[in-house]
Design brief:
about 90 residues, mainly alpha
């Protein structure tokens, strides 16, 4: 079990256990847009634009994690976020 967990969470670049990382630029943009959407809710075009930035940004972030994630955990996290965003987008 230890060997599987080590493989799943071990950073392939640094060798450290990596579960979470500091947000990259795309994720910071998503965070700011989500906060603005939360603080300034409206039914107009601004709200639609913020929602599009949040959904689109999360899809970009998820694709980046799937392709360049530092370990299988990060790739699975990216896949889960992509699946969730696509299912909510297609509803």
């Amino acid at each position: 079990m230890r060997k599987i967990l080590n493989w799943f969470f071990r950073n392939r670049v640094t060798g450290a256990i990596t579960v979470a990382q500091w947000p990259n630029l795309v994720l910071w943009i998503v965070i700011v847009a989500a906060l603005l959407l939360w603080i300034w809710p409206s039914s107009g075009q601004v709200s639609v634009a913020f929602a599009a930035v949040v959904k689109g940004g999360l899809l970009v972030w998820a694709a980046d994690e799937i392709v360049r994630g530092v370990n299988p955990w990060r790739r699975c996290l990216g896949t889960a976020v992509a699946v969730y965003e696509l299912t909510t987008l297609l509803r």
